[in-house]
């Protein structure tokens, strides 16, 4: 179990203090003990020196020693040079053993002060001994020894020991309190640093630690503050870069997928999610085969991961839209191999390319027919038909018709090109105009031709209906629609030209009672040179560009075109133009 720093430091401080006090007490006890023993020894020595003259002159040593012992409370012993005890104030000398081997006696006979603290076999207790040699006329007369029991010494210094123990206890309590305060003062800054570090770990990198007074803790706090500031800066930089990258990925029109070495989707943008009909959050972490179901794409991904080489490949999705993707694959630099795949939807480009090819083919075909016809009749005339007036006239009329047709095709192409160019360069000039006069002007061109076939033309339009239009271009579009209606209507039919307001737009429609158009042709009617019945279209003299011109005039006005038709019930072509 982990403990707080306070409870780790405090026992150590208390243990150090306790050991120090214990050693101090031992030393103090020893010093006081030695000091008191030294005093006792000096006292015994002084008593011996004071008693020496009296004992040297005493007739009865035993009596003199007893009187001296009773008066001073000290045991005195007189020992002859051979170690025999001749007098003792506490015991019968006759019952005492030879003292020649006693250390203090040996030292005294040796000419020095003999001192010893030891157990006395005679008195059965510990005593402190001091012995001095007594000499007469230069000869050793005897050794006088004084002794006191150690119990008295210890009883004398016991109060001092009590004072020392009490002082040690007080010091221990004070030291424990001081140790607690010191340990607490050390733990509080650490706890604050810990709390600050926890805030940093939780992401609060803008908070700062208070700098303590202690140099070591202050350096630690400053280091943590510096670390937090640097982390905050780096994390903000990384976050900004991530947000920028996320913004770039989100705003990209191209779909992007990052695939790991195990062919799992690591990341994709919203364009990729929309392209492959999957949610971004659900796709990440899934195998790529579960996100994109296309075998050719899977093979391309494996090829990029296996070879580590960049490449590109066109992949057809085979979905309802028939989309075609240009896929760029490359390896992302790093320790872990990852493939970055960028998908560009080139479906529209493919369609435009196909339209361009068809347009070139159609233009070539449309131009080749009149040119071939003109060339053939010219060669016939050269071969002698020019000398036959009747046939020559017919041939020249055909050449003239084909020339007019060729000129009409070129004029329509130029007109279409001009409309597109004006639209791309800032738009066509438009003025708010009343629509009724424009409709009447267009109808007026066909009334005579329509009347020849019994076709009636009805115009329906409010007199006050206006819109911002280019009157010349709008009239051209209506002319093309009415022209087609007259060409493809059955005899004695009716053509209705109507302009009406529908919400925020004006709708101009041309309805006929002709043969109608099959539904499979409707989506392509406004393409250049598209013909429903090619043989009949050329017979009636169309260039195949009329409806394409109508569509681009509507787009130039910011509008659109539409068609409704049913075989046997006629057709309705409509222009939708914004009013404001």
Write structural notes for this entry.
- The chain is of the alpha+beta class.
- 54% of the residues lie in helices and 20% in strands.
- The chain contains 16 helices and 17 strands.
- Strands 2-1-5-4-3 form a five-stranded antiparallel β-sheet.
- Strand 6 and strand 7 form a beta hairpin.
- The relative contact order is 0.05.
- About 1% of the residues have low confidence.
Main attributes of the structure:
five-stranded antiparallel beta sheet; rod-shaped; Helix Hairpins; Beta-Lactamase; single chain; 580 residues; alpha+beta
Q: Which helices and strands, and how do they pair?
A:
Elements lengths: L4 H53 L3 H12 L2 E5 L5 E4 L14 H7 L4 E7 L4 E12 L2 E11 H52 L13 H37 L3 E6 L4 E4 L1 H6 L4 H4 L4 H4 L3 H13 L3 E6 L7 E9 L5 E8 L1 H36 L6 H36 L6 E4 H10 L2 H6 L3 E6 L4 E4 L1 H18 L5 E9 L2 E7 L22 H7 L5 H11 L3 E6 L5 E8 L2
Quick take:
This protein is of the alpha+beta class and 580 residues long. The chain has helices at residues 5-57, 61-72, 103-109, 150-201, 215-251, 270-275, 280-283, 288-291, 295-307, 347-382, 389-424, 435-444, 447-452, 471-488, 534-540, 546-556, and strands at 75-79, 85-88, 114-120, 125-136, 139-149, 255-260, 265-268, 311-316, 324-332, 338-345, 431-434, 456-461, 466-469, 494-502, 505-511, 560-565, 571-578. It has 16 helices and 17 strands.
Gross morphology: rod-shaped
Query: From the helix content, strand content and strand pairing, which structural class follows?
Result: alpha+beta
CATH architecture of the largest domain: 2-Layer Sandwich
Mean pLDDT, all residues: 80
| Termini separation | 81 Å
Domain module tally = 4
Unreliable stretches, pLDDT < 50, 5 or more residues?
A: 535-540
* CATH fold assignment of the largest domain: Beta-Lactamase
CATH superfamily heading of the largest domain:
PAS domain
Q: Which percent bin holds the helix content?
A: 40-55%
Number of strands: 17
Helical stretch count? 16
Main beta sheet: strand number and arrangement?
Answer: 5 strands, antiparallel
Please state the CA-atom Rg, rounded to the nearest Å: 65 Å
């Amino acid at each position: 179990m982990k403990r707080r720093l306070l409870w780790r430091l405090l026992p150590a401080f208390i243990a150090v203090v306790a050991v120090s006090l214990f050693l101090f007490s031992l030393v103090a006890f020893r010093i006081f003990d030695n000091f008191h023993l030294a005093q006792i020894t000096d006292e015994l020595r002084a008593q011996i020196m004071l008693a020496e003259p009296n004992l040297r002159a005493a007739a009865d040593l035993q009596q003199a020693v007893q009187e001296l012992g009773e008066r001073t409370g000290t045991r005195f012993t007189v020992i002859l040079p051979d170690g025999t005890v001749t007098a003792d104030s506490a015991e019968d000398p006759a019952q005492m053993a030879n003292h020649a081997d006693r250390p203090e006696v040996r030292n005294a006979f040796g000419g020095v002060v003999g001192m010893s603290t030891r157990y006395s076999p005679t008195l059965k207790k510990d005593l402190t001994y001091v012995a001095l040699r007594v000499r007469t006329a230069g000869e050793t007369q005897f050794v006088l020894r004084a002794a006191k029991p150690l119990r008295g010494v210890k009883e004398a210094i016991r109060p001092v020991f009590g004072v020392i123990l009490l002082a040690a206890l007080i010091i221990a309590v004070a030291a424990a309190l001081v140790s607690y305060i010191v340990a607490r003062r050390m733990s509080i800054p650490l706890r604050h640093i810990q709390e600050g570090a926890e805030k940093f770990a939780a992401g609060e990198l803008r908070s700062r630690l208070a700098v303590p007074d202690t140099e070591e803790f202050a350096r630690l706090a400053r280091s943590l503050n510096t670390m937090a500031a640097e982390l905050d800066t780096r994390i903000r930089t990384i976050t900004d870069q991530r947000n920028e990258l996320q913004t770039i990925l989100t705003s990209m029109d191209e779909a992007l997928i990052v695939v790991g070495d195990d062919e799992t989707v690591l990341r994709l943008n919203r364009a990729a999610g929309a392209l492959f009909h999957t949610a971004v959050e659900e796709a990440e972490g899934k195998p790529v085969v579960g996100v994109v179901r296309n075998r050719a794409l899977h093979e391309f991904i494996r090829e990029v991961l296996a070879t580590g080489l960049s490449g590109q490949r066109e992949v057809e999705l085979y979905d309802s839209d028939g989309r075609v993707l240009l896929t760029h694959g490359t390896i992302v630099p790093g320790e872990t191999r990852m493939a970055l795949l960028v998908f560009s939807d080139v479906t529209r480009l493919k369609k435009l390319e196909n339209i361009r090819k068809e347009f070139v083919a159609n233009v070539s075909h449309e131009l080749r027919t009149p040119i071939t016809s003109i060339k053939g009749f010219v060669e016939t005339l050269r071969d002698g038909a020019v000398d036959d007036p009747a046939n020559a006239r017919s041939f020249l009329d055909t050449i003239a018709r084909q020339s007019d047709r060729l000129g009409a095709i070129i004029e329509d192409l130029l007109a279409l090109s001009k409309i597109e160019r004006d639209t791309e360069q800032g738009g066509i000039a438009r003025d708010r105009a009343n629509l009724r006069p424009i409709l009447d002007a267009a109808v007026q061109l066909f009334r005579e031709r329509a009347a020849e076939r019994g076709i009636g033309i009805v115009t329906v339009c409010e007199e006050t209906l206006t819109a911002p239009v280019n009157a010349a271009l709008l009239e051209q579009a209506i002319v093309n629609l009415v022209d087609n209606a007259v060409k493809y209507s059955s005899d004695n039919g009716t053509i209705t030209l109507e302009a009406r307001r529908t919400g925020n737009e004006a709708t101009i429609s041309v309805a006929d009672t002709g043969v109608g158009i099959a539904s499979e042709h409707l989506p392509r009617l406004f393409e250049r040179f598209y013909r429903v019945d090619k043989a009949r279209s050329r017979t009636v003299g169309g260039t195949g560009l009329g409806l394409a011109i109508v569509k681009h005039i509507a787009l130039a006005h910011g509008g659109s075109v539409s068609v409704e038709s049913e075989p046997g019930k006629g057709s309705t072509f409509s222009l939708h133009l914004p009013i404001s």
